[in-house]
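Might you be able to consider the sequence and fold that I enclose below?
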Amino acid sequence: MMVAWMAGLLAVLAVSAGLTWGARAYALRRNLLDEPGERRSHGVATPRGGGIAIVLTLLLACVVAAVIWPTAGLTLAVFALGLVLVAGIGWWDDHRPLPAVRRLLVHVIAAALLAGLVWHASGNPWQALLALLFATSLINIWNFMDGINGIATTQAILAGLAFALVLPPPYGLAGVVLGLACLGFLPFNYPKARIFMGDVGSGALGYAIAALVCLVSVRTDIHWLLLLVPLSAFLVDAGFTLLSRILSGQRWMEPHTQHLYQRAVKSGASHTFVTGMYLVFGIFSAAVFNACTNLQPRWEAAVAIAWLIFASGLWLLLRKGMRN
């Protein structure tokens, strides 16, 4: 049985890598390229849309899981529908740019599907509302933060493994599969980018991680604030950057290079170095999360708040240093 499970997990990795290779060939054939520009952090025209490989791998995993656990079929189908909606609107946007409001509407619909699952599992409408807001936000946060080689994928791998470790079996497989699907894509994007994830992958990845967080929230007693800790690198960078753009009167939905990771690259740091630094911070975040999941709820919340304050202070310090 163990050999079969290991073979299945290796198959996830192989399928993701093979599909990424195919997506790159498709992008080159269709001339689907991200060109360099002042709102970009790369200097060479690069194929985009490789994230479709992660999406298709996750969908295939849902089909297999539904066969193995038929009672979970409806839940998996609802998740898959939301994933298809987010990935589909991203795929469309990769080929023909769409208005931000139209994309956001689809994101909200997909997030509402997740919220419905949370409501059904928990019976708590407030938890469902929180899931709706969180999923909508995370879809866009992962899209905003997917701007340099490997950063979105490595953070997703860390989050998937961190949550897998606290979920009871077989639910922990969801985090492992997500991590492996991303790992199959990673060599094509880091350290040298042969293809970018594109909106089809970044938004869908944010949705998948939001679904994983929702799963942890209904299958464990971990305080919801502590669930933010493994995601703190992206939440803090995206949150403060968005706030600063809104307060300065800028059009916050437009592409830009004002995130901390983008400023670091513009100041001369390599994509490899910056992604590596975010990876190190992510490892510490995941370690803090996993070390504190057996505390009493009030202490879990206290640790989460302290960590987010620390992360915010570090962000402000580094941002000020780059400005100077």
